[in-house]
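user: can you give me the structure for this one chain? C-alpha cells are fine.
assistant: on it. calling the predictor now.
[tool input]
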Amino acid sequence: MLLPVRIVVAPDSFKGSLAAEDVAVAISEGIARVLPDAELLLRPIADGGEGTVAAALRAGYVPLPARVAGPDGRPVDAVVARDGDTAVVELATAAGLGQLSELAPLTAGTFGVGELLRAALDDGARRIVLGIGGSATTDGGAGMLQALGVRLLDGDGGELPPGGAALAGLDRVDVSGLDPRIRDVELVVASDVDNPLTGPAGAAAVFGPQKGASPADVAVLDAALTRYAAVLARDLGADVAAMPGAGGAGGTAAGAVAVLGARVVSGAGLICDLVGLDDALEGAALAITGEGAIDEQTLRGKAPAEVARRARKAGVPCLALAGVVRLSAEQVAAAGLAGAHGLTDVEPDLARCLAEPAPILTRLAADVVPPLVG
C-alpha cells in the first residue's frame, strides 16, 4: 500500500496582509483541492517577530494568557507559549506597533515585555525564547528591565519615566532588585537584524522612522541610547553599543544582553527548531515556504531561506509562494528553491491581490504544486 505523499507547508507571514498561519491554511486548501490524499503538515514559521508565538502554538505548545501593559501603558491581552521547561514570548504582543492608536516614538515602552517574562518565570520556565521583531519602541528594553525590578535612576535618584527619550537623563543602573529567577534561566533573544545599538546603522536611525520618529526625534533617541550604553558599560561592565544585533527591537536586545545575560541568535533558525521543521521534513516529497516578497532580503537569512536550506539538507525540493517574486530564475535556483511563484501568476490585477490574498494564494497553490509531486 502506497503511503500518501507528504507536503510540509512552512511559510512566514505576508506582512500587512496575511499572518503565517493564514498563509499556511490558504496554501493547504489549494493543495487539498487537487491532491486530496496528500498528508499536509502545517508548520507556519516566523523570524522572531510577529507570529512567533502562533508558530509555537501550532507546533504543540500550550497558551498561557497574560494581561500586561502595552507600549503606551494601556493594558493588552497577550499569550506566552509553553512546552515543558520552555516558554516563548513575543515582544510584539506587548509592545508592538499594532497596539498603538497613535505612534509614540519618544515615549513608547517595553514594560509589558518584562511582565510577560515574569509570567513565564511564574509558570516555571527554565528556558525563555524572546522574539523581538515588530516593536513600537526605542527604549533599549528599559521598560522590560524595570518590570523585572531594575531601577534606572536620574541624577536626583528618581526612576526614569517610560520611553527611549528619557534615557538621556539616565545617571545610574541599580540591579539589586532584579528578579533573581532570571539568573537561573536560559534567555534566548530571537532576532533577524544585525544592527548595532547606536550610530547611523543603529536602532534609532534605521528603525525609528517606521515607528514615527522625525529626524529630530531620531537624533534625540540616538543620543539617549548612547547615554544608556555608556551607563551600562560603566555600571555593569557590559559594552553593547556596537554589538551586532544589539539594535534589535529599538535596542531591547542590548538591554537583555547587558542586564539579563541573554544571547542573541537567528530568529528564523530558532523558530524552525521550535516548530520541529527538521522532523517534519523527514520523508516529505515537497516543502513549501514563502513570504510577502521573495527578494534580495530573503537571501540574507530570512525565514524562507532557512526553510529552503533545511529542505535541501533533507533532500526535499522546496517551493516558494509569495505575494511577489523579485528574484531572477538564476537567483531562485541559487537559493536552493525548486521554483518561486507570486500571486500575480494567477491574478494579474495587483489591487485584487492586495485586497484578497488568501483565495488567490489557494488558487496559486492548486496550480503549481501538483507537477512537483506528480
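assistant: here you go. The CA atoms of residues 11 and 289 lie 4 Å apart. Residues 52-268 form a domain with the Glycerate kinase, domain 2 fold (CATH 3.90.1510.10).
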